[in-house]
Write a structure and sequence with these properties.
Low-confidence stretches: 77-83
Mean pLDDT: 80
Number of domains: 2
Radius of gyration: 17 Å
CATH class of the largest domain: Mainly Beta
Helix content: 10-25%
Largest sheet: 4 strands, antiparallel
Shape: globular
Strand order of the largest sheet: 4-3-6-7
Order of helices and strands: HHHEEEEEEE
C-alpha cells in the first residue's frame, strides 16, 4: 500500500513546484533523501533488514512535509544532473570512507560538490585530469543520504551516498 501514498506525495511535490513535472529522477532523489530511515529485524535471503534500503521499508517512511519543502527549494533554472556510470562511488552504502571516481574518458576539470539533505554544501573540490578520483572521509557525517554532484564542462552527473 505504499504506492498510493508515494503517488500522492509526487502530486503534492509537483503541485508545490510545477518545474518538477517530468523530472522523475529528481523527484525520486528528493523522496529518498527526505524519508525517515527505518530498519527491520526481518531479512530476505542475502538482504539484511538492518541496511538502508531494505526489503521491508525500502529507504524508510516518506515524510511529505520534508519532501514538499525540498521540492519548493529546487529552482527551475538548476542544471539537469544525470545519474550515470561515469560517476562511481564505492562502497555505497558506507560507514567511514567512500571513493569517488570519474570515468577517465571525461578529461578536463571536474567540480565535485557534496550536499546534505537540507541542501547545505559540505564539500566543494576541484579535480583536474589526470586526477580522477578522491577519497571522502564520512566519519564526521551523520547517518543518512547525501548527494554528490560532479560538473565537467557541459556534463553534469549526480549520485547518492548512503552513510550508515
Amino acid at each position: 500500500m505504499a504506492g498510493p501514498h508515494v503517488a500522492g506525495l509526487v502530486a503534492l511535490m509537483i503541485s508545490a513546484n510545477p518545474a518538477l513535472a517530468g523530472k522523475v529522477e529528481l523527484i525520486e532523489n528528493i523522496i529518498e533523501a527526505t524519508c525517515v530511515p527505518k530498519v527491520s529485524d526481518q531479512n530476505c535471503n542475502n538482504f539484511s533488514g538492518s541496511s538502508i534500503p531494505n526489503v521491508v521499508y525500502g529507504f524508510g517512511r516518506i515524510d511529505a512535509l520534508a519532501a514538499v519543502k525540498q521540492a519548493l527549494a529546487i529552482r527551475s533554472d538548476t542544471k539537469e544532473y544525470l545519474i550515470t556510470k561515469s560517476l562511481k562511488i564505492t562502497p555505497n552504502p558506507a560507514t567511514e570512507f567512500v571513493q569517488i571516481a570519474i570515468d577517465s574518458a571525461n578529461e578536463g576539470i571536474h567540480d565535485i560538490k557534496i550536499y546534505d539533505l537540507s541542501g547545505k554544501m559540505i564539500l566543494n573540490k576541484t579535480l583536474e585530469f589526470p586526477l580522477i578520483s578522491m577519497e571522502l572521509n564520512l566519519a564526521s557525517l551523520r547517518e543518512g543520504i547525501y548527494f554528490c554532484q560532479v560538473s565537467s564542462g557541459k556534463n553534469h552527473y549526480s549520485a547518492k551516498i548512503i552513510k550508515l
